[in-house]
Amino acid sequence: MEAGKNGLGARGLQGDPPRDTARSKRNGAFSGDFFGAILWPIHRFVWGDPQRRARKLLEFAEVEASGGRDLVRAAELTEDPVLRARYLTHARDEARHADMFQARGRALRKDATSGGKEGIADWMAPGERGMEGLDMGREKDADLLAFLHLSESAAARDFARYARVIDKDPATRILFQRILSDEDGHKHYTRRELHRVAPRRAGRILWRARLRRLWKAYLRFATALAGIIAGVVLTLQYFLLLPPFAWMAKRNAKRERPGWVIIGKGRDR
Fold this sequence. Notes:
Ferritin
């Protein structure tokens, strides 16, 4: 298998055998992932179209590249030499993931013929969210580690789900599995470093980071819901309010005599 031929990029995936997906082919569920079983039909719909799949992979590439740049910035700001080395290694992984996602996305976009629709794919198959607007200069090491741990945990969970539903595209499935192994490593090192940096406050910091992520998720959901409600309201206005006015205009038009109408004296004043 050639990396360029399949758009796998980076170090290539020749030596990565596909993981067993027999369980997912039965019902899309796997042990301990209730929401994965519920979202399986939606994820299958999102990733079933090659053009939509290509667009999502290219979006993931942008997020990974941006996350890598943020990690380099975090490495510059931290005073902990161990964290500095960890952040730089993590940043290199993110840059490599960006190259892999971009190469595969471009290969799919070149080969795809159908036009995937946007919308549900943007928030039902998110992938990594990146730093979500965190200010690297203001975040403490413990807070950043907690955020990274939750972000990498969510990415590992989502990538595992996506790999299970992509059964007709082995190259993309192997790509997710390859990156998933890195995400697992990131998830574990961030938790270990958090307990090293703040051993007594690690649990409290994690809960605070969860609340921050929950608030940001609520804002994303509220924005998407507001767009849907606005579309429904405008559609109802068009079909319910406009027809009566159009009917009244047609009725008044029938009452008017054709041609020029002479206006009596005094009516033009």
